[in-house]
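Note to self: keep these together.
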Amino acid sequence: GSLDSDQPDANSRHVPISSAPRIFHNMGRILLGGAVVEANPASLRKFFNRFSHPELIAVGKMLIPLSATDLALPKSKLTTLLIGQVGKNITYDQVALVDTHYVLTCNNKKWETYQMLMSTGEPHKPSLEAAAVQNAISTYLSSFFDVHAFSTTLNGSLWTRIFLQDGVKPASQLTGVSNTIFMVQTPFSNAIFLSPVKVALHDFIMPAVVNAFGCHKVSKQGLSGRNLGVLQECFLNQDSQGPYAEYRALWHDTNPLDREAPTKRRRTEPVASDGLHTHITLEDLNVLEAERDAIDDSFGGHPAAALNFAEYLLDVPFQGSPELALSGRFKAKVKFEGPSIVDGLPELVKAGAAVLPLPDVLTSLNSSGANKFVISETHSSEADNSETHNAQ
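Structure:
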């Protein structure tokens, strides 16, 4: 098939497969998972040293049988043991398995969110076997590169590691290669999460994704960050919670008719200082109660996903008194970062650093499935969806 569109959108990127530029004069090949990777001891040591001691033990068990004596070895000696046992015979599949485990446990990748759509615009929610995705990715990309794809199911999601050789031999085939891309898909969802893809490879990877999952197009969403679990939670549960609803993580797939009606708990005892009001004399408990009610009305009173990044672009006309009569537009970029910005925003209100009502894009972050917005003079927001890849 080919990627094209009858009416291309100005903000979309359409990539015809037939016109995709080729890097090789000749076709590439599929690197078999059982083939041995050329790696020197120094590269192998660097490869294994990324793990903590407990994680290295878990990785070692994936590669070779470890005795009780082996498990008691310090990290440096255990690394030496693994290099001696598998160093000369480590395969592409073993490298991919260990590298995927590292990305899963260390959570140091930045992820971008894409959604898969059918030709009707409805979400495409496939559930494919790991072998089918691995084979489809390998077959498509082998037309352009030497490629090794490895798919496996981890924590309920389908993980795929794609390693490409684009004609320039990397310094190491084990770690730190910019030609390695990770892809995560939750079965029966239309979400795809991709690690960064360099520009030279982007127009090859995206058609491969469309081809592997059988969708009509993939569209980039305004949701990114380094905590994959939080991004999955925000995107997959975006229609399942709001200020007056229990967060879906608390009641997962239960019958809402079985739930007891929520009762509001009122304080009857003096309010204990939580550090935010230590410099204030608590004279009117009703004022503090009203503040808590307003915060609950805006953000909800239940646990939220620990989203650690949000950004919005303000693009509005200048506003002020008639005497100023300023013309032109006011543009500003506002970025929030922290362990959990959804929990931090109410704290800003309590501390007096922010005043309610806040923009809807901030109070509904967990139910919007995006953390990048544009706010215009109409007070509407649009997620930053900048790329769409179509297929027929």
